[in-house]
Amino acid sequence: MELAKVGCWFSAKKKKKVNFAEFDSILRKHGFQLVEIDFSNFEEQGPFVAIVHKITDMMIEAMHGSEVASRNVQRIQSYIDRNPKLLMIDPL
Q1: Domains in the chain, please, with CATH?
Q2: d(CA 8, CA 2)
Q3: How many Cβ atoms are within 10 Å of 39's Cβ, its own excluded?
């Protein structure tokens, strides 16, 4: 049986504060698989039932002209728009 996927993305700085192995273990006990989002193939990693993120840093980069950050923010926003039942932890 395939586990429901929970996508997550944190900046490198915030990632150091999160114990991904423990987070994944907790999710698996409850029937979920943790997937660290890779924006280069974001759509292919889903479907996600929830996304946990801290993309504030990326949003600030996008506002300051970073094309890569802007594309990534747009990708996640488009995914949210196409999946209205998606649970967003820390909505945009």
Answers
A1: 4-89 (3.40.50.11370)
A2: 18
A3: 16
